[in-house]
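ERR on first pass: missing label on line 2. Operator R.T. fixed the label and resubmitted. Corrected input:
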Amino acid sequence: MSHYDKQLNILTPDKEPVGLEADYKAAFEYAENILQTVREPLIVLDADLRVVSVNNAFYKTFMTSVEETLGRHIYELGNRQWEIPELRSLLAKVLLEETTIEDFWAEHVFPTIGHKIMLLNARRVYKKDGQGPDLILLAIEDVTVRMQQENELQQLRQQLEAKVVELRNANEELSQFAYVTSHDLKAPLRAIHNYADFLREDLEETLGGEQLEYLNGLTLAVKQGEALIDDLLAFSRIGRLKQNIEEVDLGTVLREMKTTLESTEEVEITTPDEWPVIESEKSLLKQILSNLLSNAIKFNKSNIKLIELGWQSSEGGFIELYVRDNGIGIDSSYHDQIFRIFQRLHNREEFEGTGIGLAIVRKAVNLMGGSIRVESTPGSGSTFFVTLPKKSPGV
Amino acid sequence: MEKKRFVILMAEDDEHDIIATKRAWKKNNILNPLYVVRDGVECLDYLYRRGKYSEPGSAPLPGILLLDIKMPKLDGMAVLKQIRESEEFKYLPVIILTSSKDEEDRLKSYDLGVNAYIVKPVGFDNFSRAVNAINIFWELVELPGDGRNE
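pass 2 clean. output:
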C-alpha cells in the first residue's frame, strides 16, 4: 500500500469513491505535495488525535517510519514519547476552543533523540460540506540548535560585556593610580626643592666648585621631576574632569597666546584675522594650542622663529586648523611615535621636556571628538593639523 | 604702646612644612613664638592644657591657629568644629592652611566658621610671603574681648 493510498483510505474511510473522486484525488495530491515540501516537521491528526499524515521532515527529525506512525494515536508514537503535558493541553485547546495556536514553546527529552526545544503551531482544518471529520495540522519546528546558538551567543555577549566592564574598571583604576601616585609625589619633590633652595641660600658663598655643581644638579633634577609630575597630572586630568562646554572664539584665544609668545622670544606669528567660534572646552582647547605653539618655538633653531596659523572648514561640521613652523622638522618614521606618552626624539641637553606634551594634545583632541596629524620633513619645518568639531559632541 | 607678640599655634603633621614654616619665621623676622602640634588630638590637648600640656606655661594661649586639614587622629575640620562650639575658643582666629583645593573642603571650612582658608602656595618664597602676610594681618585685627594682649 502506497503512502498516498493509505492516507486516502483514512481520509475517506468506508466510503465508495463517487464521481468527485478525481477532483478529490487532485486536491489531496496538491495538499500532500505542499506538506511534503515543507522543511519543518508537519503532522496531520484527526479529531481523535490519530495520525492522518506526516511529512518526510517529521520522519527524519524524529527518526521514525511510516509503519510506526500512520494511523496511530499521537501519544502512542515512539514509546509514548509524545505524551508531553504542553502538547496535550495545546491539542485540547485546539479541539475544544477551535483556536489556532501560534509559536507555542515546548521543551522535552525524547528517549530517541534527546532533549529538544520545539516551537509548535497548530490549527484546525475544516473540511467543506462536512466531508469527513475535521483535522488538526500540527507544525513542529525544532529550534534546539537555534536556541543553543542563541544561548551561546547570549553567553558570549555576556562574557564580552563582563570583559568590557572589567577592562573599563582596570583602566579607571590605572588612571586613578597614575593620578594618585603623581599627586602624592608632588609633596616630597616640593620638599626636596625647598631643602635644595635652603642649602643654596645658606651655603652658596661657602661652597666649593664641585659641591655647588652637585647642588645645582640636585635643583635641576628636582625641577625635571616636578615638570614630569605636572605634565603627568595634566595628562591624567584630561577626561577625568567634567567638561565645561562653551562657545569659544578661537580668534580671541589665539590673539592672547600670540601676544604672550611674541613678547618673549624672537618669534613671529602670522594668523588670519577671521577665526570661527566653536563649541568647545576652553581649557582643553587652550592646552592643545599652547602645547603646539610652544613646540613650534622649542624645536626650532631658526634665527626668526616663524609660525603660521590657519584654518578651514572641513566636511561633516568640522574645522581643521594648522600650526606651521620653520623648526627642525620630524622624520616621517616618527610621525606616529611623537604622539605617544614619554616619547622623546632628543636628549634633554638638546631640547628639554618630558615627552608628554603631544600625548596631552592627542588625548585632548580625541576627547573632543577630533583628530590630529603631522606633515613634516627634517630641516623644513612641521605642520600640525588639528580637526575639531564645530559643535561639541556633548559629553 | 607696642602690642605683646601673641603666640601662633600651628597644627601640622608634615615635617617638611613645619621646617619650611620655621624657616619662613626666620626669614621674615617674625617675633611671635611658634608652637607646633602634630595632630588634631594634640591640638585640642594644647588648647585645653591636657596631657603633656598640663604643665603650667607649656601651652600659652595662642593668638591665631594655623590649622591643616589632613592630620592623624582628628582632622582639622573636627578640631575646627569643637573650637567653634566651645565657649573659650569660639573667637580664636583659625586659618586653614592646606594643600587641598577642593571646593568641598573650602565650603565646609567656612560653614564651620573658619576665618580664612588658604591653599599653601607652591614654592618656598611664596609660602614664606603668605605666612608673613597672615601674621601681619592678624596683628591688626581686633577681636571681641581680645585676650591676646592681656
